[in-house]
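Obj: model holo form, ligand = fe (ii) ion.
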Amino acid sequence: MTEALAVTPARAPVDAWIARCAAAVDALFARPDDPAAFAAVRAEAAALVDLDPDLTHARRTADALGEPAAHALRVAVVAVALGRRLALAPAFLRTLAVGALVHDVGCALVPTPPPRADASARRALERQHPTVGADLLRAHGPLDEVVRAILVGHHERLDGSGYPFALEGAGVPLAARLVGLADLHDTLTRDRPGRPAVAPDRALSLLRGPLAPQVDADLVAELEALLAAGGAA
Ligand SMILES: [Fe+2]
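Output (holo structure tokens):
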């Protein structure tokens, strides 16, 4: 009983934020051309940094949401928590949160491949979403450089195997590395069409092993420590 009384008040504002933020993300994906929809997500992103939610609780609550909000929120809370571990400035964390919440907004505009499209045609369409998303939000007005870097760069990989520009090493901005790692870990640990989820420990093993050339080893170590500290699945 004592534990419930201690935990509930701290979680109530987080749960309310998750509900508001999920609604804002869903509205943006439904109306990506609406500048007001982007402004609403930006406002909720700032609240994430101030709330500093419990990671495990926030991710599990997000799990109950539909897509695209569930993925966007999980990636955002992990990316911001990683940024906090790196002692990044609050102003940077706020832009990191914005970029993480909208990193896949281009998916809302990329055409659905025709039913008979082969894998390479599907991949070519999918690979348009980083630049499509950045172009979309830039049309709403001046776009913060950190947000733009996340939109364009979250599928870039340090070994040059990513897209859209096959950037390498230090050419991949820190914000894109952070969101890219949170995105990759989330993708690995959730069922995707044609690919079942792997366990969180297995995902970390992949990031330290076969996928290591693609990701920032220091950030993987921080992610491992973060998830261990939160007992996060
Ligand atoms: Fe993406």
